[in-house]
Amino acid sequence: MSRPEDSPWAVPVAQIASRPGQSKPIDAVFPAPSGIGDAIVGVDEGADVTVTGSFDSIIDGIIFTGRVSAPAHAECTRCLKPIEHPWEANVTAFFPFDDSRNARNGRGDKGEVDIIAGEDESEDTYPLSPDGAFADIEALLRDTLVEALPLQPLCRPDCRGLCSQCGADLNEEPDHHHETTDIRFAALADFKAKLEAEQGE
Ligand SMILES: [Zn+2]
Ligand SMILES: [Zn+2]
């Protein structure tokens, strides 16, 4: 049976969960979870993900605020060059104590939990281990890094891309161009030659 603390993403929080208003700083490296991006833009499983920030206990749960950074691989969408660049994101996540604990605190808390759950709960709320002693940040890291991945990565903001006709790198050959009219006439000439060949048969 796997225990919560056996997860490489388990952060022990029992110490601060015992009482609201306590804080636990974190500055650690975790392995990247699987499933972040794809072969073109993503973070390799097991890559070093640095997490800095703090876990703070409040009455109904634990809040993590901090920063997540990971080496992402990507390809420039214009010139297809590989891009080596760490991706970073600021994170705020909430780890609520389970309902049985809230129920013990009185009926008032239950209503608050429902209000929180009504908002975008799936985005930034994560469960603690059943005994409340560990915050498992695997899903948090995955969600954060997936969201941080650029949809259209560029090697630089003004990348000129590749020539659409011959694939030449326009960053290296800024003066590169084709006589576009040539292309149209060439197609016409081909067509004409074909017609003439057919008539000739
Ligand atoms: Zn580029
Ligand atoms: Zn060209």
Question: What would you say about this model in short?
Answer:
The chain is built from six helices and six strands; from the N terminus they run βαββββαααβαα. It is an alpha+beta fold.
SS field, number of helical segments: 6
What's the Cα radius of gyration? 27 Å
In which range does the helix fraction lie?
A: 25-40%
The secondary-structure class comes to alpha+beta
Pfam family, one: YceD
InterPro entries: YceD (IPR003772)
Organism: Bifidobacterium avesanii
Protein name: DUF177 domain-containing protein
Describe the 3D structure.
- It holds the Pfam family YceD.
- InterPro entries: YceD.
- By secondary structure, the protein is α+β, with helices and mostly antiparallel strands.
- It folds into 2 domains: 145 residues, no CATH class; 42 residues.
- Strands 2-3-4-5 form a 4-stranded antiparallel sheet.
- The longest helix has 21 residues.
- It binds zinc ion (2 copies).
- The site of one zinc ion has 6 residues, from loops.
Helix and strand topology:
Layout (H helix, E strand, L loop, with lengths): L9 E3 L1 H4 L5 E9 L16 E11 L2 E15 L6 E15 L2 H6 L2 H12 L2 H4 L9 E3 L1 H11 L31 H21 L1
Antiparallel strand pairs: 1-6, 2-3, 3-4, 4-5
Bound molecules: zinc ion (2 copies).
Protein name: DUF177 domain-containing protein
Organism: Bifidobacterium avesanii
